[in-house]
Amino acid sequence: MKKLLALTLLGVVMTTATAQARDTDEVRLAIDVPYEPFVYRTPAGELEGFEIDLGNELCKRANLDCTWVEQSWDGIIPGLLSRKYDAILSSMAITPERENQVLFSIPYYNTPSVWITRRDRDIDINDKDALEGLSVGVQRGTIRDSYVTQMYGDTLDIRRYSSSQDVANDLVSGRLDLSFEDYPLAVDTFHFKDDDSEFKKIGESIKKPVSIFGKGAAMAFRKRDRELAEKFNQAIRDVYADGTYEKLMKQYFDYDLSLPVGEK
Amino acid sequence: MEQLNAWFTELLSGNAIFTANTLGYYLDGLGSTVRLVFLSLIIGLVLAVPLAIARGSRRKWIKWPVFLYTYVFRGTPLLIQLYLIYYGVVFIEGIQDTFLWAILKDAFYPALIAFTLNTAAYTTEIFHGAIKATPRGDIESARAYGMSRALMMRRIIMPSAFRRALPAYGNEVIFMLHASAIASVVTIMDLTGAARFVYARFYAPFDAFLFVAAIYLCLTFAILYLFRYLEKKLLAHLKPING
C-alpha cells in the first residue's frame, strides 16, 4: 500500500512537472461485465479476463494508476461523456456513429460475427428467399443489430434483446430461428463448438463491410483527452511489439484476434 | 401526400437522428403501444366486472380466490409478471407441444396476457370499492320495488358504481399506458422500444427519449381529456347546482 502511495505520489510529481492535466495519473476504465473471456467475475468476485489483463498491462506501461468501473453496455458512451470514468476498454468496435461521440485509440483486436441456429434446424443463410419471415435475435444497439437491420431489414423479423443470454433462451424455446452474434460471445453463450451443444454456426464468419463492423475494437476516450489516448496508443504498440499481446491472447483464446499494429 | 412528403423531407434535412426512417420506428412503436394498451384495457375491463361482483360476494369460496388474485397481481411488479409469463412459461414441460405455444411463442401475446391480468386486478379493486360505496338508500329503494338481486345489480348498483369508479379508472388507464413502456424488454417494438433503438444507434439519449416522452404526454392528455368529457357527461347530476 505504501509503495503504491509512493508510486502514485511520484506519478503526481512527474505529471505536474510536465504540466499535464491532473486526471491523467488516475484513470477510471469502464467495462461491461460479463463478456467471457474478455471480462468476467471469478466466484470470489474478482474481475478477470483478457481485457482486464490487457488493460492492466497497458496502464503499467503508460505509468497510469487505473481502476475498473462496471457499466452496462447501453449507457457506456453517455457515462464516458458525463465523466463517470475516463476511458472505455470494453470490446467497443470503432464505427462512424461512435466516432462522432468519442475519440478512439488504435484498435487492439478484431473478431468476426457469426450466424447461429439450433442444431436441428436447416437454414441456408445465403438463400434470401428461404430466409423470408424467419426471426433473428440480436443484442440491441450492437454492430450486429446494425448489420441485420441494414442487410436483412426487409427479409428477417428482427427482435432486439438486452443480453445475448435472452437471445439464447428464445433460440432454445423456438421463438427465434436465428441469432447473429459476435464470434467470441457466441462461443461463450451458445457453446456451439461443443458436441452436445444445442446450437450450431451456419455460413461464413462475417467481418465486412467495414462501414458496419468497423476497424476493430478499440479503447474510447472523450474527444478532448488526446494526450491520454496517445499514451494508450503507444502502450498498445508496445505490447504488440514485444510479444506480450500474443502471450496474453494465447492465455484466453484458441484463435487469432490480433491486428496489424497501427491499422486503423 | 406528395407535398406533405416533400415538406417533411425538407423539415428533417440536416438532422442526423430524426430521419424518415427513425420516425417510422416511432410510428410503428406508437401503433404497438396503442394496440397493446387498448386491448389489455378492454379485456381487463370485461374480466373486472364479474370479478368485482364476485369479490363482494358473501360466499367465501367465491370471494377469497378473487381476493388472492388481486392481492398477488397488485402486490408484485408488472415487469416481474411479464418476465414470468414470457421467459417462465418456456420452462413448463411440454408447453411447446400444445396449442398454447402458438400464442406464447410471439412476444405480443405474453405481454398482452401480463398487462391484461395486471389491469384486471386493479380494475377489480376499483369497481369493488365503488360497489361497496353504493348508498344504502338506493338499495333499500330497489328492494322496496321488489327487484331481484340480479336486476338490482344491473339497474341500480352497477350504473352508479361505474360512475363513481370513473375518476379512479381514468388514472388506471394512464398508469397502464405508462406501465406499457416495459414491453420493449421482451423485444416488442413499442414506443419505448423505438426510443431505445434510436438511442442505441445514435447515443443521443435526450433526443431519443425527450421525443418519446412528448408522444406519451400527448397520449396521456388525450386520455385525460376523454375522461374529463365522460365525467362531465355522466356525473352532471352530482354537480352542485351553482358549481
TrEMBL record, chain A:
Keyword Oxidoreductase: no
Keyword Metal-binding tagged: no
Pfam families: SBP_bac_3
Signal sequence segment: 1-21
Compartments where found: Cell envelope
Domain (Solute-binding protein family 3/N-terminal) ranges: 26-256
Top-rank taxon: Bacteria
Keywords per UniProt: Signal
InterPro entries found in the cross-reference section: SBP_3_CS, Solute-binding_3/MltF_N
Family label: Belongs to the bacterial solute-binding protein 3 family.
This protein's name: Transporter substrate-binding domain-containing protein
Annotated source species: Chromohalobacter canadensis
Taxonomy of the source species: Bacteria, Pseudomonadati, Pseudomonadota, Gammaproteobacteria, Oceanospirillales
UniProtKB/TrEMBL annotation, chain B:
Transmembrane annotation, as ranges: 33-54, 66-87, 107-127, 168-188, 208-227
CDD domains to which the protein is assigned, alphabetical: TM_PBP2
Record membrane topology: Multi-pass membrane protein
Residue intervals of the ABC transmembrane type-1 domain: 30-227
InterPro entries in alphabetical order: AA_ABC_transptr_permease_3TM, ArtM/GltK/GlnP/TcyL/YhdX-like, MetI-like, MetI-like_sf
Keyword tags: Amino-acid transport, Cell inner membrane, Cell membrane, Membrane, Transmembrane, Transmembrane helix, Transport
Listed PROSITE patterns: ABC_TM1 (PS50928)
Compartments (UniProt record): Cell inner membrane; Cell membrane
Family: Belongs to the binding-protein-dependent transport system permease family. HisMQ subfamily.
Protein name (database record): Arginine ABC transporter permease protein ArtM
Organism, as annotated: Chromohalobacter canadensis
